[in-house]
Protein 1
Amino acid sequence: MMSDLLTVRGLTLATPDKVLVEGLSFSIAPGERFGLIGESGSGKSLTSLAVTGLLAPSIRPAGSITLAGKEIIGAPEKRLVRMRGDAVATVFQEPLTALDPLMPLGRQIAGPVRRRLKRKGQEAGRVAVAREVRSLLELVRLPEPERLIRSYPHEVSGGQRQRVAIAMALACQPRLLIADEPTTALDVTTQAEIVRLITSLVEELGIALLFISHDLAVVGQVAESVMVMRDGRMIETGPAEQVLTRPEDSYTRSLVAAARRFDEALEGQP
Amino acid sequence: MSAESTELPRRRRRGNATFWLGLILVGGIVLAGIVSFFWTPYALSDMAGGRLEAPSAAHWAGTDRLGRDLFTQLMIGARIALIVGCGAVAIGAVIGVATGILAAFATRFLDDALAAFFDILIAFPTLLIAMLVVAAREEASLGTAILALGIGLSPIVGRITRILTKQVLGQDYITAARVSGTSWGAIVYWHILPNIVPFLGVNLALQFGLAVMAEASLSYLGLGAPPPNASWGRMLQEAQGTVYTAPWGAVLPGLALFALVIGINLLADGLRDRFDPARRDG
């Protein structure tokens, strides 16, 4: 049996006066696509920040998070910096704010590329980095790489920005990719493209995926197994197909029913 | 799109006018300052003309009460003003940016302490702090004046840097950079400094104007660059007694001071409009 890439055991996150996440446990195997479902405020984004060791200082974590065999909770910042990028990378919800507005896109991708090449002891000269940046842009299927490398974030479309953000995350060659509501800020057509892109890339590159969303339909397309969260607790977990078609919990059932009604309304059926 | 395309060129043109006016004012004064190293109409302490002469072909800006050429003094004053302005802003920026970023990164306690420290220092007029520093040294000199003004400006720069840095630190792209394993040093160098410089730059230009005026005040009080340096502030002080009989002696250094301060501010605004990529191309 293969050991899990990410194991979360009894994770509790609390501020001095409020418990935000309580007793959360789940695990992701290498190459597995895992969906985390919940409405806003359910603690799903906090969970992803905890996995990368980026919680605000006011939030106290308890329990255990092991990523690639290393404990995250209580680890010194120096080890976390090395682990981020190497083991895990994140794509955020809003690509406009997740990119530095004053830095050309090419240079933003070049940063993690250079760090990765150095870490692996490979040649990290300008030519090698530029070649790598170009191949990453091709990997996320961005047209006109020459123009994009010199563009600033505000000069390209939302979908293109999110592709650049994905390229930045993949530049690290992580073993786990966290996608935190990566399609919420995009229009429906672009959403579908980004979801397809992420799914095919993680499959192609053999990366595990932690996909966070409130959108059941999107999660259903992406994930093999899912977990439903509410108010910081796990409600239901299991294979995506089972949870999303034959939910056992009443909350999940209401979510599924609401999503179905929404779809039917869109299609104009009774 | 159509609203933007009619709106933008007008804004661009206004930005350009600001930039060029600033460049002409500052450029003229910089040129005078540089030329003063190689050539002035007369030697600084040369009593070449009659007392309190009006501007003429021989003395373009007239003469002072000892018969010294005022245009010569204005040129050397330009040099001093620029040296003091640049020096003080450089010292103020180094101390201010370093402590401001430190405060933004520090623990809650150290941050509060530094912020309070900045506020207390700002509550004292820059000039007063500078006078204290000059008084603490043995004698007034150009170097002391620069150091004093630099220290006086540093809390203003520090406070702005702290606020700007905190703003940038709250942005998603900093989290994104951290998630991808960027060290804090690299984040400061690659993300924070470039993102605060456009705003800080305009403010530093403002501080430059303040420093030049404060130097004039220090010299006016006899705490600035001592003779044989000529300073616009000391020219103002010396012309004070004869302002009714020979007004040009006070008006001309005043105008020079005004032109430099206004010019620097226009130039900074223009530069920001030109080089800030988020403003460029809308």
Note: Residues 60 and 113 of chain A are 32 Å apart (CA to CA).
Protein 2
Amino acid sequence: MKKFILSLMMATALTACGDENKAEAPKKEEKPVITIGATLPLTGNLAVYGKALQKSLDLALQDAHPEKLKYTYKIVVEDDQYDLKKALINVNRFKSVDNINAVMSFWGNIGTLVSDWAEKNKIVHMGCAASDKVGAGYYNFNHATQPQSLLNRILKYYKDNNFKKIGIAYLQALEIQEFIDHFVPILKENGFEVVFVTSFNPDEKDLKMEILKMKEKQPDVVEVLLNSPIINIFGKTSKELGFDVPMSSINNMTDALEEYEGQTFVTEDSGKASFTEHFETATGTPQTACVVNFYDGLNMLINAYEKTPLKEGKQIPDNEDVVKMLLDINNNGFVSVINQINMDKEGNIDSPAVLKRIINGKPTTVEK
Amino acid sequence: MEYLINLAILFGIYSMLALSLNMLIGMGGLVSLAQAAFYGIGAYATAIGMTSLGFGFFTTIILGIIINAVIAFVVGKILARFQGDYYAIVSAGLSIIVFSILQNWKSVTHGPLGIFGIGKPEIGSYAFYSNTAFLGLVAVFTVALYVLYQWINKSSFGRVLKALREDEKLTQSMGYKTKHYKSVIFVLSAALSGIAGAFFASYIAFIDPSSFQLKEGIFLFTIIIVGGLSSALGSIVGALILISLPEVLRFIGLPYETAAQLQQMIYGAMLLLMMIFKPQGLFGKYRM
């Protein structure tokens, strides 16, 4: 038994050291290597997002024509199951074993953790979360349509359709809670009546009672701020219970196209209409939340590393200078795949929100 | 190196949790799934104590221990009425209740927003900012818990607990108030897991309720089953295996597209094989 434990300990240590050697491989290559880590939920409840984001990064790198670039870009993706301690292990491994230069994270909880870590370790961090904590600090950037833009667009949608009574079903997660904390008072200020608010834990499966209670309140529209898989359950159960009411959402209806046929959601402007088609054709995967932001965010990082001047005796740019280049978005020649992006001084990269409706299983941009 | 230190810190924290849980399950035979709840309470005591109340880390450890002890004393009185599977189910209920409170008592816990900016321990003018120093502190507490476990195990209190585990009615017939013993070990185990929670909060600097769900309680239960019940060494080895095995699997060169899924499958299969060939755990002295 002692042998077993010793072997396990040695295996952990040796494999870690072994990979450090791998990380030194760039010396043999012609071009210096820039390594970008991404901690994503590749398994577990949120795997549907993580897998799509992994493919988005692969596609972005492929589309960047690596052969024409000054540096070789290596993407390292690890699974965090959307668990804080696993994400922390991942980022430490990225730094110690993979020698990453930049890191990418998905959504608020993990993004907040990585943001703090990146600041301490001077690693450029590109997150995608509707949370202002993720972009806080010098090395942190948050590429996501900001809550205010989404909120303004959804309010316009309600007004255009003369919806007065609003029901809300939301998931208990960091960025959604932040959004709700702003959303409900603003709805009331704008003369809407919030007739029912219910929240769900990520692992809840039986939503019948809450849906029936909401049905009794007869809302004009239900705002569904849920993620997969609970958004699928909500849609299916509502249909089963004959709760036939307009539903709207932010971002996430793309995970449940069948259940929400004919319904409307607000999302980031995926820009050039061809992007969604390009992504779905190339990867065979529907475009989910943050896919376009990850694609754009990686291109943004590549552009910044390529354009940042080298200091004497250095093979790759200093991260401090890369951050300056990233912040100089109006002059650094970056062409976004999204129609219009704006970056504030804090590194929050906002883009306009658009309204989409699921028509014949496909999200289609609509005006009203 | 940083990566290995990070793993070692988490290994230390989970060793503390496993030791405290093994006191309850291994020594007392009381299958509890509530450990994640007390771990969470300890973590939140530190997070709130340090960020909102301005307490030092060590004060918040004591605070966490006291809160856990009080809650465990009250809940323990109820739990002491149950045995076997019923005990496990009721304790799982407690875990769900605590998670819901952490999630919904927003004015105190900030709910899903979590608490960030949790500080590091300080002794006088010395702050444990570096991971190496933090690891040293975790190691000291882990060793202290290990020694405490062994001391209790060899004490007359420990012997009564083991008798209770084997046959509660027989132990009662010898004049021991088994409900009292069950209650005391539950309080002790809960209080000690609060220490691990404090270290976790301080180390990770940001906590939210998702880290303290029932599944975390099942993970801790798995650690002591793999390591072996009623064994301090088993608790340590179980934590080592369950923390480091997924990391070892990352280096075996699985296909990029499916690596994460395959790692999960291999991890599950290895645990399954271990249970088939070593059902009492690696160092287990007692089999459920």
Note: Chain B has one domain: 2-213.
